[in-house]
Amino acid sequence: MSLLGRDFFRLPERDSYPLAGLFLEAAIDKVGIEAVRDHLYPANAATWNDACRRAGTSAEELEKAFEGFPGD
User: Fold this and answer.
1) Rounded CA gap, 59 and 14, in Å?
2) Each residue's pLDDT tens digit, 36-68
3) What ranges in 1-72 are assigned the alpha helix state H?
4) Residue 1 above 70 pLDDT?
5) How far is Cα 57 from Cα 43, in angstroms, rounded to an integer?
6) Is pLDDT at 2 greater than 90 in this prediction?
7) What are phi and psi of 34, to 5 degrees?
8) What does pTM read for this prediction?
């Protein structure tokens, strides 16, 4: 959630873009590229929980996947 919306732009670019890339890799690993593309990518902070459900996961499960992802 901290990478959605304005909080993303509050982080220094040297941190925000690599973190976003790692999150994207973890999300693709968890739900597949189609679910990321169709549900997670267009989501914002207000729609994130619903987007996660439509992708077949939860915000909590994605966060766990990200925390345990190599490179984090």
Assistant:
1) 25
2) 999 999 998 899 999 999 999 999 999 999 887
3) 6-10, 13-31, 33-35, 48-54, 59-67
4) no
5) 14
6) no
7) -65, -45
8) 0.82
Q: What is the mean pLDDT of residues 7-26?
A: 88
22 close to 69: Cβ distance less than 8 angstroms: yes
Q: Which amino acid is at 63?
A: E
Length of the chain: 72
Sign of CA dihedral 5, 28, 61, 35: positive
**Residue 25 token pair:** 């890799």
- Write the CA distances from 47 to 66, 68, 69, 72, integer angstroms: 19, 24, 24, 25
Angstrom distance (rounded) from CA 51 to CA 36: 9
Residue type at position 57: T
Which helix H or strand E contains 36, and what residues bound it?
A: none
